[in-house]
Amino acid sequence: MNFIESGVKNLQFSIGTAKLACAFCSQTSVSFDVQFGSQYGWVEVHFPCQGHIKVQLRAALPDEALEPSRIQELVCGFYSG
Questions:
Q1: How many Å apart are CA 33 and CA 62, to the nearest integer?
Q2: Of all helices (H) and strands (E), which one includes residue 41?
Q3: SS3 for 74?
Q4: How far apart are CA 40 and CA 27, in angstroms?
Q5: How many secondary structure helices (H) and strands (E) does the chain include?
Q6: How far apart are CA 63 and CA 46, in angstroms?
Q7: Most Cβ neighbours (<10 Å): which of 26, 52, 66, 74?
Q8: What are the tens digits of pLDDT across the range 46-71?
Q9: How far, in whole angstroms, is CA 37 from its chain's centroid?
Q10: pLDDT tens across 29-48, in order?
Q11: pTM score of the predicted model
Protein backbone atom coordinates (compact mmCIF):
# COMPACT_ATOMS: atom_id res chain seq x y z
CA MET A 1 0.00 0.00 0.00
CA ASN A 2 1.24 3.48 -0.88
CA PHE A 3 -0.51 6.11 1.26
CA ILE A 4 0.59 8.98 -1.00
CA GLU A 5 -0.83 7.41 -4.17
CA SER A 6 -4.08 6.46 -2.41
CA GLY A 7 -4.90 10.11 -1.65
CA VAL A 8 -4.66 9.87 2.14
CA LYS A 9 -3.10 13.36 2.29
CA ASN A 10 -6.54 14.92 1.83
CA LEU A 11 -8.44 12.47 4.03
CA GLN A 12 -10.80 13.68 6.76
CA PHE A 13 -13.31 11.40 8.50
CA SER A 14 -15.08 10.63 11.76
CA ILE A 15 -14.99 7.54 13.97
CA GLY A 16 -17.67 7.79 16.62
CA THR A 17 -17.23 11.21 18.25
CA ALA A 18 -13.63 11.61 17.02
CA LYS A 19 -12.82 13.73 13.97
CA LEU A 20 -9.62 12.83 12.16
CA ALA A 21 -7.65 14.75 9.54
CA CYS A 22 -4.39 13.75 7.86
CA ALA A 23 -1.44 15.76 9.20
CA PHE A 24 1.45 13.89 7.55
CA CYS A 25 1.75 11.19 4.92
CA SER A 26 4.59 9.09 3.48
CA GLN A 27 4.48 5.93 1.36
CA THR A 28 4.12 3.62 4.39
CA SER A 29 3.00 5.88 7.26
CA VAL A 30 0.28 8.39 7.97
CA SER A 31 -0.36 10.64 10.96
CA PHE A 32 -3.80 12.01 11.83
CA ASP A 33 -4.75 14.90 14.07
CA VAL A 34 -7.66 13.72 16.22
CA GLN A 35 -10.27 16.00 17.76
CA PHE A 36 -12.52 14.86 20.63
CA GLY A 37 -14.79 17.84 21.30
CA SER A 38 -12.45 20.65 22.33
CA GLN A 39 -9.46 18.35 23.00
CA TYR A 40 -6.86 17.11 20.54
CA GLY A 41 -4.53 14.17 20.10
CA TRP A 42 -2.95 12.20 17.27
CA VAL A 43 -2.86 8.72 15.77
CA GLU A 44 -0.15 7.27 13.56
CA VAL A 45 -0.61 4.27 11.25
CA HIS A 46 2.45 2.43 9.94
CA PHE A 47 2.14 -0.21 7.22
CA PRO A 48 3.80 -2.52 6.22
CA CYS A 49 5.55 -3.83 9.29
CA GLN A 50 8.03 -6.68 9.56
CA GLY A 51 7.07 -10.29 10.29
CA HIS A 52 3.66 -11.26 11.63
CA ILE A 53 2.67 -7.68 12.55
CA LYS A 54 0.75 -6.25 9.59
CA VAL A 55 0.08 -2.73 10.86
CA GLN A 56 1.06 -0.61 13.86
CA LEU A 57 -1.11 2.08 15.42
CA ARG A 58 0.42 4.58 17.85
CA ALA A 59 -1.51 7.37 19.54
CA ALA A 60 -1.54 10.16 22.11
CA LEU A 61 -5.12 10.90 23.09
CA PRO A 62 -6.84 13.14 25.65
CA ASP A 63 -8.10 11.56 28.89
CA GLU A 64 -11.74 11.44 27.76
CA ALA A 65 -10.71 9.27 24.80
CA LEU A 66 -8.92 6.68 26.94
CA GLU A 67 -12.02 4.78 27.98
CA PRO A 68 -11.73 1.18 26.70
CA SER A 69 -14.92 1.46 24.61
CA ARG A 70 -13.63 4.57 22.83
CA ILE A 71 -10.22 3.00 22.17
CA GLN A 72 -11.94 -0.08 20.73
CA GLU A 73 -14.18 2.13 18.58
CA LEU A 74 -11.14 4.00 17.23
CA VAL A 75 -9.08 0.86 16.50
CA CYS A 76 -12.03 -0.95 14.88
CA GLY A 77 -12.74 2.17 12.81
CA PHE A 78 -9.26 2.02 11.31
CA TYR A 79 -9.54 -1.69 10.52
CA SER A 80 -13.00 -1.42 8.96
CA GLY A 81 -11.77 1.55 6.96
A1: 12
A2: strand 39-46
A3: helix
A4: 25
A5: 1, 5
A6: 24
A7: 74
A8: 887 678 877 788 899 988 888 888 88
A9: 17
A10: 889 999 988 999 999 988 87
A11: 0.76
